[in-house]
Design goal:
- The complex is a heterodimer.
- Chain A folds into three domains: 1-37; 42-140 and 266-321, 3-Layer(aba) Sandwich (D-Maltodextrin-Binding Protein, domain 2); 144-263 and 339-349, Periplasmic binding protein-like II (D-Maltodextrin-Binding Protein, domain 2).
- Chain A has eleven helices and ten strands.
- Chain A has helices spanning 2-36, 51-65, 83-89, 104-112, 180-193, 195-207, 216-224, 235-243, 278-288, 291-299, 330-349, and strands at residues 42-47, 68-73, 98-101, 116-117, 139-151, 172-175, 211-213, 230-234, 248-251, 264-272.
- In chain A, α2 (51-65) links the parallel β1 and β2.
- The N and C termini of chain A lie far apart (75 Å).
- Chain B has two domains: 1-36 and 328-481, Orthogonal Bundle (MetI-like fold); 57-277, MetI-like (MetI-like fold), CATH 1.10.3720.
- Chain B has a two-stranded antiparallel ribbon.
- The longest helix of chain B has 42 residues, at 316-357.
- Classes of the chains: A alpha/beta, B mainly alpha.
- Chains A and B meet through α1, β1, α2, β2 and α3 of A and α5, α11, α12, α15 and α17 of B.
C-alpha cells in the first residue's frame, strides 16, 4: 500500500515536471503568436522622458486616436541600457516609430548617426525656431530648465559659480557629468565660455569637494534628505520635490545682470527612419507637439515649461519669457559634447 | 545499444547547441567586434584599458569589494545555514524565509532602503540625533556600506546552498562519528567537508555577482571597475570598447573558476540518498544566546530595510495605486520568470547530467561557457542578442517576450545547470548502470530513475531559476519588447520621479510576488519529506 502510494506520488511529480515544461513551451509559442498576430493600429515609441510624466500623455493619445501605443521607457539610474543605445543598435532593423528625447542633444546625435527621418509637423507652428531642427529631424516641445534644488537654510546658491565657492565646500552635489542632462549642461558651458574657462571651473568644482551622484534623481534625493545643501538638477526633479512638500526650494541660477542665464532643454520629438508604422508615428508626433500636450506637461508634477506663447501653465512653472536664458546653439553643444568626453572622463577619474 | 547511446548523445548535444546558439554565438559577435576598428582587426578598443593607475585601482577595488562581500556572506551564511538546517533553534522555518527575502529584492533597492534609514536625515538620525545620522551616513557611503548592502543581498545564496548540501549528508556517517566525538568535531570533520562544494559554489556565485554589480557601489559612491563598461556603452555609445572593458572582469571570473576546479579535483564527495531523518544538534544552554544573536542578525539585515519600505508604503491607498500601476508588469514578470525557470530547469537537466557524469570530454568547456555567460555584464549579453535576433527573418522573436526568455537562458544557464549538477551528485551512478544493464533506454532512465530521484533538486533548480529571472534587470532592460516591461524594470523606470511611497509599495509587491511561489514550493518540499 505504502509502495503504491509512493509510486503514485512520484508519478504525480513527474507529471508536474513535464506539465511545467509543456506549459513553458506553450507560453513561448503564445508569446510568439501574440507578437505576430495582426491587431489594432499601433505606434511604437521609445521614451527618454520620465515614465511618470510621459505615460499619461501617451494614454490620452491612445484614447483620442484609437492607435495603440507600445512604449519603451528609459531609466534615470540605469542609463547603461538606455533607449538611445537600443535605437542605435537597432538601426538596421528599426523597431520604433518615434523617439521622445528629453533633450535635443540626443536627437542631434541620432540624426548624425542616421537613425532619424525628416518630418515637418503641422503642429510645430508657434514653437520658436531655436527649438527646432532646420532639416526637420527633431522638433522641440515642453522644456526643462537646469535649476538648483536647495535646502531652506540661508539665502541659498544663486549662481553655478557657487559650486566653486568655499562657502559651499563639500556641501553641494551634481550628477555624473558623463550622463544625461548634466553632460549637456557641461558641454553648454564649454560652448559658451570656451574650453579654458570651462576646464578651470570644473577643476575648481573638484577642489571644492562637490559630490558626484549617479543621476539628477539621486541628487534630488540627497538634497531632500539633507545630505547636501544644493544641487543642479532638472526643473522637473525640483518641482516634483517642492510639490511633494519636501523641505526644499527651486532656484533659477545666474539671473543677475550680465549673468550666464539658465540652460533650457526642450523635449524633442523624433521620427525614426524606416520605422514600422510611419503614418501612426507622424500622428503621434503631431500629438506630442500640440499645445494640449504642452499644457498637460505644465500641469503635471514635472512642471515643464511650454515653448509656445499662450499655453496655460500653473504659477510655479518657470516662465521662459520671465527668465534670462543661457544662449546656446544645440548643434554646437552636441559637437562639443563629443569633443570633451575624454576630458570629462579624465576629470571624473581624478 | 548503439541507438540508445546515440539518443543520449543527441539530446545532450542539442542542449549544448541551445546554450551555444542562444548564448555564445550572439555574445561572440559582440566580443569579436571589440577586436575590430574601422573594419580591420585591431586592439585599439583594448588599448585604452588598464593604461592609468586609476583603472588598476578600480580593478583592485572591484576585487576587494567582491572578496570582502564573499568572505562576509560565507562567514555569516555558513553558520546560519547550519543553525537553520541542523539545530533545534526555534522558528527555524520562519527565520529561513526571512533570511531569503533580500534575494528577491534588487540590491539597488536595498541600498535605497538603507539610505532612508541611515542617511543624514534618515530614521536613525531622527531617533538618535544628527551626529549619529552623520556618522551612519559616512559609514553607508563608501566601502563598508557597499559591502554591507551586498552582504545582506547575497547572504541567502550561502544560507540556502549550505542548507541544501547539509540535507544531502547521509545521517549514518554523522551518527557513527557521534559515537566517538562531540558535535563540534563531527561538524568540523564530517559535515563541513561534505558541504564544502556547496559553500564553494555559493562563494563563486556571490563573487561573480558582486564583481559585476555597479548599481550599489555607484549609489554608495564606491568606485569599481564594472562602471567602465557601463560608461563606454551608455555615455559614449561605444559598444565595442564597452565589450572590451568587460573582459578583464570576465578573465578574473575564469581564473576563479579554474582555481575552484583545481581545489575541487578529487574532493567532490560521493553522496548517497538520505533515507532517514537528519540528525539534529541540540543547542541546550546556548540556545537562548544563539536565538537572540540570530534574531538580531535577521533584524539588522532583513527587517530594518523591509520595515523602512513598509513604513513608507503604509497607507492602503498607496498600495492600491502601486498595484494598479504595476499590475501588467507583475503579470509579465511572473509569466516570463515561470517560462524562463522552466526552460532553465530543462536545459539545466541535460547540462547537469553532462557535467556530473562527464559523458563528454567537452563537459568542462561547456560548464565554463555557462559560467562565462553568467559573468558577462547583462548589457553585453543584451547587445549580442539584439544584434543577433533583430534581423528581418527573426524580428518576430526579437519583438516578442521570447527574446526575454532567451536572455534568461543565455545569462542564467549556469545557475540552473549547477544546481541540477548537485542534484545529480546525490544519485549514485550504480542506479543508472543497473537500469542500463536491464535494458532501460535513455528516455526511460530519465523518466524512471533521474526525475523521480531528483525531484527535489529539479524543483530547487526551478525555484532558483525563477528567482533569478524574476529579479533580473540588466538583461531584461536591454531587450524587453515595447510595452512589455517587467516589475523590476518598471520600478527602475518610474523611480526617478514617483513618490517614494509608491516605489516602496512596489518593492513590497516585488517581494510578495517572489514569496508566493516560494511558499507553494515550500509546501511541496515538505510533502516530499
Amino acid at each position: 500500500m505504502e509502495a503504491g502510494g509512493h509510486h503514485n506520488f512520484l508519478k504525480a511529480h513527474m507529471e508536474v515536471f513535464f506539465l511545467m515544461n509543456r506549459l513553458s513551451i506553450s507560453l513561448v509559442l503564445f508569446c510568439v503568436f501574440i507578437s505576430c498576430s495582426p491587431g489594432s493600429p499601433e505606434a511604437v515609441i521609445y521614451v527618454s522622458e520620465d515614465q511618470v510624466f510621459s505615460e499619461p500623455v501617451l494614454k490620452d493619445f491612445e484614447r483620442e486616436t484609437g492607435i495603440r501605443v507600445r512604449a519603451l521607457y528609459d531609466t534615470e539610474e540605469a542609463k547603461g541600457t538606455g533607449v538611445m543605445n537600443r535605437l542605435i543598435a537597432e538601426m538596421k532593423n528599426p523597431r520604433a516609430d518615434v523617439y521622445w528625447a528629453n533633450e535635443p542633444i540626443r536627437a542631434i546625435i541620432l540624426k548624425e548617426k542616421g537613425v532619424t527621418a525628416q518630418y515637418f509637423s503641422p503642429q510645430a507652428e508657434g514653437i520658436p525656431f531655436c527649438f527646432r531642427d532646420r532639416e526637420g529631424h527633431w522638433t522641440g516641445f515642453s522644456a526643462r530648465a537646469r535649476v538648483f534644488i536647495a535646502d531652506l537654510e540661508g539665502t541659498g546658491p544663486t549662481s553655478i559659480l557657487d559650486y566653486a565657492n568655499v562657502e559651499w565646500k563639500g556641501r553641494a552635489v551634481m550628477a555624473n557629468p558623463l550622463f544625461g542632462t548634466t553632460t549637456v549642461w557641461v558641454a553648454s558651458l564649454f560652448s559658451v565660455w570656451g574650453d579654458e574657462k570651462a576646464k578651470d571651473f570644473l577643476s575648481q568644482i573638484r577642489a571644492n569637494g562637490v559630490k558626484i551622484s549617479s543621476s539628477n534623481g539621486e541628487s534630488t534625493m540627497l538634497v531632500t534628505n539633507g545630505e547636501c545643501a544644493f544641487g543642479l538638477v532638472d526643473s522637473d526633479d525640483a518641482a516634483n520635490a517642492v510639490r511633494s512638500g519636501k523641505p526644499v526650494r527651486m532656484v533659477v541660477p545666474d539671473q543677475t545682470e550680465g549673468g550666464l542665464g539658465c540652460l533650457v532643454l526642450p523635449n524633442a520629438a523624433v521620427l525614426v527612419r524606416n520605422g514600422p508604422n510611419r503614418k501612426n508615428g507622424e500622428r503621434l508626433i503631431d500629438y506630442l507637439l500640440s499645445p494640449q500636450t504642452e499644457r498637460q506637461l505644465a500641469f503635471a508634477n514635472c512642471a515643464q515649461i511650454p515653448l509656445r506663447d499662450g499655453v496655460e501653465a500653473p504659477p510655479d512653472v518657470v516662465d521662459l519669457r520671465a527668465i534670462k536664458l543661457m544662449e546656446v546653439d544645440y548643434e554646437m553643444v552636441a559637437r562639443k559634447l563629443g569633443e570633451i568626453q575624454p576630458f570629462l572622463r579624465a576629470w571624473k577619474r581624478n | 545499444m548503439e541507438a540508445k547511446l546515440n539518443s543520449e548523445k543527441l539530446s545532450l548535444g542539442i542542449a549544448v547547441f541551445f546554450l551555444a546558439f542562444l548564448g555564445l554565438i550572439p555574445v561572440l559577435s559582440v566580443v569579436a567586434n571589440s577586436f575590430v576598428a574601422d573594419g580591420n582587426f585591431s586592439l585599439d578598443n583594448y588599448g585604452g584599458l588598464l593604461q592609468s593607475s586609476r583603472e588598476w585601482r578600480l580593478l583592485a577595488n572591484s576585487l576587494l569589494f567582491a572578496l570582502a562581500t564573499t568572505a562576509s556572506t560565507c562567514l555569516l551564511g555558513v553558520p546560519l545555514g547550519i543553525l537553520l538546517a541542523r539545530t533545534d533553534l526555534p522558528l527555524r522555518r520562519a527565520l529561513t524565509a526571512l533570511f531569503i527575502v533580500p534575494l528577491v529584492i534588487p540590491p539597488y533597492i536595498l541600498a535605497i532602503a538603507w539610505f532612508y534609514f541611515l542617511g543624514g536625515t534618515g530614521v536613525l538620525a531622527r531617533l538618535l540625533g544628527e551626529d549619529s545620522g552623520r556618522l551612519a551616513s559616512r559609514l553607508l557611503f563608501g566601502f563598508p556600506g557597499a559591502v554591507f548592502v551586498m552582504t545582506s543581498a547575497y547572504l541567502p545564496i550561502v544560507i540556502v546552498l549550505t542548507m541544501t548540501f547539509l540535507r544531502t549528508i547521509n545521517p549514518k556517517l554523522e551518527e557513527s562519528a557521534r559515537l566517538y566525538a562531540g558535535w563540534r568535531m563531527v561538524l568540523r570533520k564530517i559535515s563541513l567537508p561534505m558541504v564544502a562544494p556547496g559553500i564553494l559554489l555559493a562563494s563563486v556565485l556571490v563573487f561573480v555577482l558582486t564583481l559585476g554589480e555597479f548599481g550599489v557601489p555607484m549609489t554608495l559612491r564606491f568606485d569599481v571597475f564594472s562602471v567602465e563598461s557601463f560608461i563606454h556603452i551608455s555615455a559614449f555609445h561605444d559598444f565595442n570598447t564597452g565589450a572590451a572593458a568587460a573582459i578583464p572582469l570576465v578573465l578574473i571570473v575564469l581564473v576563479m573558476i579554474c582555481l575552484e576546479r583545481k581545489w575541487m579535483r578529487g574532493k567532490m564527495p560521493s553522496f548517497e540518498l538520505t533515507q532517514g531523518q537528519m540528525l539534529v544538534v541540540h543547542l541546550k544552554k546556548t540556545k537562548p544566546f544563539i536565538m537572540v544573536g540570530t534574531f538580531v542578525l535577521a533584524f539588522l539585515l532583513v527587517l530594518i530595510p523591509l520595515a523602512v519600505l513598509v513604513s513608507k508604503s503604509f497607507v492602503l491607498e498607496t498600495c492600491r495605486v502601486a498595484f494598479l500601476r504595476s499590475s501588467g508588469s507583475i503579470a509579465r514578470s511572473l509569466l516570463y520568470a515561470f517560462a524562463g525557470a522552466s526552460c532553465l530547469t530543462m536545459l539545466g537537466f541535460f547540462l547537469g547530467y553532462l557535467f556530473q557524469r562527464k559523458t563528454s570530454r567537452f563537459s568542462m568547456a561547456v560548464d565554463s561557457l555557462a559560467l562565462f555567460l553568467f559573468a558577462l555584464p547583462g548589457a553585453v549579453i543584451g547587445l549580442g542578442l539584439m544584434r543577433f535576433w533583430n534581423i528581418r527573418a527573426t524580428g518576430f522573436v526579437y519583438g516578442s517576450a521570447v527574446i526575454v526568455i532567451i536572455g534568461f537562458i543565455a545569462k542564467f544557464s549556469a545557475v540552473g545547470s549547477r544546481v541540477v549538477t548537485i542534484a545529480f551528485s546525490q544519485v549514485p551512478d550504480s542506479m543508472e548502470e543497473a537500469a542500463r544493464v536491464a535494458g532501460g533506454g535513455w528516455l526511460r532512465r530519465i523518466m524512471k530513475i533521474w526525475i523521480p530521484l531528483m525531484r527535489k533538486g529539479l524543483l530547487g533548480a526551478w525555484l532558483v531559476g525563477f528567482l533569478f529571472c524574476l529579479r533580473d534587470l540588466d538583461v531584461t532592460m536591454m531587450i524587453y519588447p515595447p510595452g512589455g516591461d517587467t516589475l523590476p524594470v518598471h520600478i527602475f523606470t518610474i523611480m526617478a520621479n514617483s513618490p517614494e511611497e509608491v516605489i516602496a509599495a512596489m518593492c513590497l509587491i516585488m517581494v510578495a510576488t517572489a514569496l508566493l511561489p516560494l511558499g507553494i514550493l515550500g509546501r511541496v518540499f515538505r510533502r516530499m519529506r
